[in-house]
């Protein structure tokens, strides 16, 4: 069990925030499949306080996904504090601050990973957000700007001193983007120095790696990103493995049913047209490693409407079932 501030989670597994992926439909799916906590994608604090319609739509939630962590990004303490107030009012159970995003557009505005170059700004933001919200507060960081200078431990300590309830560390430097390997030794270093829970993140791409990260670093929780895209079953698989139960791979029928459910939830949430486009991308992950998947992917790249996509999906899975794969 993992406790963040006053909030007791069902288990130690957390779905990572991922822009374009961790929308409400996906969060509902992974929650049902065992995630102890789900997180929204990063939401612009500026957009929230200006009441921008699209930004506010990211706050849409459902009781079945709770507890919900809402991640905000920005560079101005007062704006972040006001945004935190808005997300709490909208029902966030945890406020999470993004201090690691390497995307140019975010960095250019002094937010995300850019904050790791300014401890004073880190202090001001965490202090201001802490003051403005009563729910548990977490901060997601990288170990620093570039590999030659890790500021992981001092940044995490500073965040703890400013009153945060947990720190998540993804141990790739901002300049690395997503290249190279996550250096789990950094997670261990941070864990050793902090009193609040430390959540490790990075390269947990199969169930055994989650247990390995926990064992190797002593972290209190493990956050999973890419390992859950296309395999939302990973959370249940990890819990089974932890309890010594055999890991179950989803059969074809189960996989097809889940894909259809994902598609249905997306259609309800964003409309059929946009759902078809999003689903085309997700199907690349859902069919990874299945026979004839590259042919199937080629086939669906040009499909724009919902019904044709569902037919292609049905046909693909029927073929696999006929071949008794
Ligand atoms: C498509 C994509 C979108 C992401 N969006 C966010 C985001 O909105 N906020 C954030 O803190 N991290 C974001 N990340 C980073 C992940 O949360 C995570 O830190 C990273 O993928 C490493 O974990 P993994 O190896 O388990 O995927 C994103 C990653 C991916 C692949």
What's this entry about, in short?
By secondary structure, the protein is of the alpha/beta class.
What can you tell me about this protein's structure?
The protein has 325 residues and is an alpha/beta fold. The protein is built from 14 helices and 11 strands. The longest helix has 19 residues, at 252-270. The protein has 2 domains: 2-242, TIM Barrel (Alpha-Beta Barrel), CATH 3.20.20; 252-322, Non-ribosomal Peptide Synthetase Peptidyl Carrier Protein, Chain A. The relative contact order is 0.10. The chain has helices at 24-32, 45-49, 53-57, 77-89, 104-108, 119-132, 152-161, 184-193, 207-217, 234-242, 252-270, 272-286, 293-300, 306-322, and strands at 2-4, 7-9, 13-15, 38-39, 43-44, 68-73, 94-99, 137-141, 166-169, 198-201, 221-224. The radius of gyration is 20 Å and the shape is globular. The mean pLDDT is 96. Strands 3, 4, 5, 6, 7, 8, 9, 10 and 11 form a 9-stranded parallel sheet that branches. A two-stranded antiparallel sheet has the order 1-2. α1 (24-32) runs antiparallel to α11 (252-270), α11 (252-270) packs antiparallel against α12 and α11 (252-270) packs antiparallel against α14 (306-322). The two termini are 37 Å apart. The protein is 46% helix and 13% strand. Flavin mononucleotide binds at residues 16-21, 41-42, 71, 98, 100-101, 140, 170, 201-204, 224-227. Flavin mononucleotide is lined by residues 16-21, 41-42, 71, 98, 100-101, 140, 170, 201-204, 224-227.
List keywords for this structure.
TIM Barrel, 325 residues, binds flavin mononucleotide, 14 helices, Non-ribosomal Peptide Synthetase Peptidyl Carrier Protein, Chain A, 2 domains
């Amino acid at each position: 069990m993992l406790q963040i501030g006053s909030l007791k989670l069902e288990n130690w597994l957390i779905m990572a925030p991922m822009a374009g992926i961790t929308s409400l439909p996906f969060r509902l799916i992974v929650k049902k499949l065992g995630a102890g906590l789900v997180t929204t994608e990063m939401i612009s604090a500026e957009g929230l306080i200006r009441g921008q319609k699209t930004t506010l739509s990211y706050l849409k939630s459902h009781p079945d996904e709770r507890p919900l962590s809402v991640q905000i990004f920005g560079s101005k303490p007062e704006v972040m504090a006001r945004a935190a107030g808005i997300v709490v009012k909208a029902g966030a159970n945890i406020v999470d601050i993004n201090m690691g995003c390497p995307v140019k557009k975010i960095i250019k505005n002094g937010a995300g990973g850019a904050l790791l170059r300014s401890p004073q700004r880190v202090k001001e933001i965490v202090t201001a957000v802490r003051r403005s919200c009563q729910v548990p507060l977490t901060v997601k960081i990288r170990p620093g700007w570039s590999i030659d200078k890790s500021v992981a431990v001092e940044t995490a300590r500073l965040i703890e001193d400013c009153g945060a309830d947990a720190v998540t560390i993804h141990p790739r430097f901002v300049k690395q983007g997503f290249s190279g390997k996550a250096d789990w030794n950094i997670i261990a270093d941070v864990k050793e120095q902090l009193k609040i829970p430390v959540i490790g993140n990075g390269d947990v791409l199969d169930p055994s790696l989650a247990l390995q990260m926990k064992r190797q670093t002593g972290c209190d929780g493990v956050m999973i990103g890419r390992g859950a895209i296309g395999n939302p079953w990973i959370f249940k698989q990890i819990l089974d493995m932890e309890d010594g139960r055999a890991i179950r791979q989803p059969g074809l029928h189960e996989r097809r049913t889940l894909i259809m459910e994902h598609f249905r939830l997306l259609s309800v949430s964003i409309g059929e047209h946009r759902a078809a486009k999003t689903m085309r991308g997700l199907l690349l992950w859902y069919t990874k490693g299945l026979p004839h998947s590259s042919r199937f992917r080629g086939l669906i790249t040009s499909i724009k409407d919902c019904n044709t996509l569902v037919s292609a999906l049905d046909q693909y899975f029927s073929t696999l079932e006929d071949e008794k794969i």
